Amino acid sequence: MKVKPVNHAKAAEEFLEDAPHLTFHDERLWDMRQKRDQQMHLLPEWQDLRTRASEIKEHTLANLPEYLEQFEANAKKNGIHVHWAADGAEHNRIVGEILEKHGAKSLIKSKSMVTEECDMRAYLEPRGVTVTETDLGERIQQLDDQLPSHIVVPAVHKLVPDVAKIFAKNYHTDPNDNDPQSLAEAQRMAARPVILTADAGMTGGNFLVAETGTFVVCTNEGNADLSSTVPNLHIATLGIERLVPRMADLGVFVRLLSRSALGSPITQYTTHFRGPQKGGEMHIILVDNGRSTRLGMEEFWTSLKCIRCGACMNTCPVYRRSGGLSYGAVYSGPIGAIIDPTFNERKYSTLPFASTMNGSCTNVCPVKINIHEQLYKWRRVLAEHHELPFVKREIMHMAGKLMGQPKLYRTAINGTEVALSTMPRFVLYNWLNPWGKHRELPHPVKQTFHSWYKQNRLKKDKAQ
Amino acid sequence: MKIGLFIPCYIDAFYPNAGIATLELLEKLGQDVEYPMDQTCCGQPMANSGCNSDAAAAEALFVRNFAKYDAIVMPSGSCTHHVRDNFDAIPQTEDVKHVRKNTYELVEFLHDILKVDAFPWAEFPHKVGLHNSCGTLRALRTASMSELGEPFFSKPMDLLSKVKGITFATPKRPDECCGFGGTFSVTEEAISARMGLDKVRDHHNAGAEYIVSADTSCMMHQQGCAERNGVPIRFIHIAEILNGARA
Ligand code: SF4
Fold this sequence. Notes:
The complex is a heterodimer.
Chain A: H1 8-17, H2 19-42, H3 46-62, H4 64-77, E1 81-85, H5 88-101, E2 106-109, H6 113-117, H7 120-124, E3 130-133, H8 136-143, H9 160-171, H10 180-197, E4 200-203, E5 207-209, E6 214-219, H11 223-229, E7 233-239, E8 243-244, H12 247-261, E9 269-273, E10 281-287, H13 291-295, H14 311-315, H15 317-322, H16 333-343, H17 360-364, H18 371-384, H19 390-403, H20 406-413, H21 416-422, H22 425-437, H23 449-463
Parallel strand pairs in A: 1-10, 2-3, 2-4, 4-7, 5-8, 7-10
Antiparallel strand pairs in A: 5-6, 6-9
Helix pairs in contact in A: 3-12, 9-10, 16-18
Chain B: E1 2-5, H1 9-14, H2 16-28, E2 32-34, H3 44-48, H4 56-66, E3 71-74, H5 77-86, H6 94-101, E4 103-105, H7 106-113, E5 127-131, H8 134-139, H9 155-160, E6 167-168, H10 184-187, H11 189-205, E7 210-213, H12 216-229, E8 234-237, H13 238-242
Parallel strand pairs in B: 1-2, 1-3, 3-4, 5-6, 5-7, 7-8
Helix pairs in contact in B: 11-12
Bound molecules: iron/sulfur cluster.
């Protein structure tokens, strides 16, 4: 059976029905965008930083195999075990094997989008491994059995009372205690013992540095540091595009990352990992999972520059009003809409259309990905691959024909009655009904511009 | 300079006054303007939906209609953006290149090409909220964009400032998209309408009596949202104000 495309429009409509959640979500993320703007204004060199970041990433991606090999060699010198995973299945198998070798049954984890991509928990749990997310937002999402709805603030679509209910169910706290402080405390109390007794820790990572064979994790809660240092076994999972050539390049990205993401000058923790702690083991899994294919796509390869700051989501007026879950994918918002179709073209064929292509995303992107232009290009690709709904394709086909024939077009435009008889009914219904659901139709006018012109200019000309 | 006037389909059918004002304004400014009668559409709706090949007939017709003019002027940012930046469903002949290079949105034409410094006939004693469509803003760059932190500039504001009696409201999110988005307004109607509602409320709360824009498509959508939700605000195309409309 063919998979069904994600129905973003319907999910968005449901999201919009809940006023308190909608308002909070929209304003919270807009506030992050505003804070990002303030940080930008404080740095006169902001645009230069963006250009530099983009250039470094493009250079790295253009020379990816060389830099990856350099990274691998240097990381090995540092005593890190380096693994390569072609796809999610291989990634999960590698993690499973490492854990099995150590008899590890309890894995604590700090947020990593790549493990979500690979659906790792679903693989490990039936094999007897308990996976515990340690970051607050990610943990909330895990307890609620949902994907992160945002790549930086995974539970941003939830209000405090939602969290209170989830914690009450899982931690037996008071469901009516809506004090964020005490909820955070409840999470801490529940998480600490798990962290202290865990067999293994797992993190994602923001940057791989080729010249040093090290990697960097930027967080605000510090749980990545616990996950990586309390247990003696540390597994880090990163996409192969996380690479930068030199230590010196990091300065550019670290300055941009948190400013773009949250509007704070830097994350609370910027941890550089150089190798295993004494008596411990460190593994790094470099994940491809479609990235090298994407690298070969002429129109879309620059999407690999992404540093996962989430700024494009925060600024996106559609994302803010539909929530990350409405995209039905690991990656949501503008960046999701341009990379998700590379994972499954049919399933995510609707996402490049869940946008007005207004271009705000492109403007905030710290690595200058031309997101809205890629949305436009994806639409073409999807239409060429017949991934457009039948009705839409037909409407566009007919409209295209009509627009090429001025006489027929005139007849159609001169009155809905005529239009009704010349255009199949379903065209009009599919158009006018949705328009009118939450909006008034434009008012009819007595005369089109065309006929006004004929009357007031052409006739005059002839009279002269 | 011979100017060919392009009037997009929704202006032709629903907002002829915006088209008439555009024509009259250019004539008042002493321009030689002609409206080719066989025009239909620039091809944008098809191309934006991904159906680029379906845009070919419209694009070819557009070129047949307009290749003979020195400049093609249209009161629409998104159509200008399409012709200038995306018009590639047909082979790029010399005529096509000429048309693409010489197509202007009305505001940029008045501001950059004619460099108009006065509209002595214009007076608009109202508080207006200026809406820049994303096409004019982020593609044609007729105003500074909040995301880039560039020094403030606004071509439409420059022109409107020359109108007697006009004052401006300052909405909270001046360059957030209003949610029209072409076919988006239909395929994602709920979210589109919500964005439109938020937009008109933002202007209304800032004290605007009118929303003025160089893009009628955005206003058609915003007006529908305002009317459905009882937001008391009126809409007017920038050409109408510059041409001397008083209300
Ligand atoms: S696409 Fe750009 S703005 Fe969006 S998450 Fe990636 S780096 Fe950030």
